[in-house]
Amino acid sequence: MKVSMLPQTSLRPTFPFWLTLCLLLSLGSVGVLGTVPAFAQGKKQDSEQNFTQREDADFQLRLGQQAQQRGQTEKAIFHWLKAENIYQRFGDEEGLGTTLDYLGEAYVATGDNRAAESAFRRRLAVARDRDDLQAQMFALNNLGTIFLQQANYLIAEEVFTDALAIARSVENTLAAGISLNNLGLAATLQGEYSEAVKRYSTALLFRREARDPAGEALTLTNLADALLYGGAPEEAIIAYKDAFLAAEDIRDFDNQFRALEGQFLSNKAMARTSFIFRDLNRWQTFAREQGNITEEFKTIEHAAYLYAELGDRPQAEIFLEKAIDLATEIGALDRIAFLRQKLAEMQYGKL
How many Cα neighbours within 13 Å face the side chain of 145? Predict the structure, then answer.
């Protein structure tokens, strides 16, 4: 069974082809039975028809996976909708649930949150029909993530709380860590930073007990963010350093970048000028090492503003021009217009 979460939860195990394997074993057992009595022919034909449909559905599911791996999300959705229809028609709830997981994630990738919500709601219904508690936990977390994106924070909290209750009832530390991390995110988005810190801290205990290094790195970074936003930059720096090391161990570049940016912002909040430039240089060096132009652009933009704040207009102009060049390279049209306006204002003010 495929158990998957949206990207921010950092849980997406590889889909095992156990369903296909079971079908092949079934085919072998039919061959061993030999001649089927006449009274059983009708049932045999129905069984063969269902088997053919299941094969077709599995095939569509795999075609969708292959399209997704090639970055063809719309094509993947096309195949998964076909698979969903077939699974639903002959009542294969296992295959249907898996397909709805994929559809929900694909709709999120295309920005169609309404369709994603519908897919995850149906996934949850299937999981409840089958009394599949594990699938319920992950479906609830995925659904709650959609509510967060829609700024429906209270509803999201209710959904995450339901997921946490199930996780605790079955002693699933992995799902408990995910649910508490998401509850922390809901609190952060509502400005309840003290509550967010409590939830993230508890989530960390479950992440470590579950030996979930990706989840631990994510939650550490989220915890550091909550500390920074809550007015505790010194504590945030410690958490960001821990987050960077945890992310470094598993080559989680996204959270390494978040941790580097967080350390810079924390020192900036405390007006530690020497540390600010040190952090900015570390961030920029790492961005160049990884060939990440978007992150490098962010460091150049920050440098421009820093020099402007320090009253060094010539350096600020140089970095603004560099930022405009990088923004052009990555196609950040909104930033290009904004930076050009800032550069013009600075040059006008200098005249």
Answer: 23
